[in-house]
Design brief:
Blueprint: H1 3-8, H2 15-21, H3 33-49, E1 54-57, E2 65-69, E3 78-84, H4 101-105, E4 110-114, H5 124-140, H6 142-145, E5 147-157, H7 159-168, E6 185-189, H8 211-216, E7 230-237, H9 240-255, E8 260-269, H10 283-297
Parallel strand pairs: 3-4, 3-5, 5-6, 6-7, 7-8
Antiparallel strand pairs: 1-2, 2-4
Length: 298
């Protein structure tokens, strides 16, 4: 079945069926606690082994903080990989999000894991604004951090992929007086790019999604001309709806002229596909390294 057909199938579903289709744990027996524990444990190890990492505040809210990991290299301003965690905009934090750092700082890149306020304490519009503010802060402080502001890559998993896309989507940058190419590339893992299927489900209740949110906060419904080069991937052990979301956004980016590499990762599920980002030898890691190499040559 074509991605476009899969992406439209949700319209024939009841809210309960959509809730099941958008429940990523339904593919793994419902219990994803082992993966959350692994995020936390591996992130603690990363903070213990990467020298010189610091926490910074990028905005006034208590959760507007990020962890920055400087590169181990000494070849001048480094590319920066910014990671936004998943959790359906309602769970997890930067404390669970540092695990990819060692793999990249050892290769001459800097890494940052950002926090944002969780729903329902913040609306989705406010969460998007915080993530944009975090990346803007990193851009504006690039010189002090030893970062090349022309080579900022934003990566995210699940809801974090939605937020990464909302940071990269063109249009908002002009309103704050920064270049439209603030984000040089994205890595979008098992993301949600059209919010409408969530409306009416329990998943969306803490977000209080409105029709305006669906229109204005769905990357798939926004103009994509100028969207940066991207890697889109998802796990083999995912629901059809999550696979369809990635396939649909891949098609939209390609139609807009974006260079995009998309693929399914064998044997991975919605919760462990993100570990591919911590392995520079994985297909995801190699695709990201390829993009970074192209940015260095540009």
């Amino acid at each position: 079945m074509e991605a476009e057909e899969l992406a439209a199938r949700w319209r024939e579903m009841s809210p309960e069926e959509r809730e099941e289709a958008y429940s990523p744990s339904s593919c793994i027996g419902r219990d994803y606690s082992q993966f959350v524990a692994a995020y936390r444990d591996r992130s603690a190890e990363a903070r213990a082994c990467v020298a010189g990492w610091c926490e910074y505040r990028y905005g006034p809210a208590p959760s507007e903080r990020l962890d920055f990991f400087p590169t181990a290299g000494d070849g001048g301003p480094a590319p920066l990989i910014v990671f936004i965690h998943g959790g359906y905009w309602q769970e997890l934090s930067k404390e669970d999000s540092s695990f990819p750092a060692p793999a990249w700082v050892d290769r001459g890149m800097a890494f940052a894991a950002i926090d944002h306020t969780l729903a329902p304490e913040a609306s989705l519009a406010e969460i998007v604004a915080e993530c944009r503010r975090a990346v803007l802060w990193l851009y504006e402080n690039a010189g002090d951090l030893g970062v090349d502001p022309r080579r900022i890559v934003v990566a995210g998993s699940s809801a974090g992929a939605h937020l990464a896309a909302m940071v990269a989507v063109p249009g908002w940058q002009q309103g704050v007086g920064i270049p439209g190419n603030l984000v040089a590339a994205t890595v979008l893992m098992s993301g949600i790019f059209d919010l409408e299927p969530l409306v009416g489900t329990l998943i969306a209740e803490p977000l209080c999604l409105t029709d305006l949110d669906v229109t204005g906060l769905s990357p798939a419904r926004l103009p994509l001309d100028g969207f940066p080069p991207s890697v889109i991937c998802w796990g083999e052990v995912e629901t059809d709806e999550f696979k369809a979301q990635s396939g649909m956004f891949d098609g939209l980016l390609a139609a807009a002229g974006t260079e995009v590499s998309s693929f399914e990762v064998p044997d991975r599920n919605h919760f462990d596909v993100v570990f591919e980002l911590a392995d520079t030898g994985s297909r995801t890691g190699r695709a990201l390294a390829s993009i970074l190499g192209q940015l260095e040559e540009a």
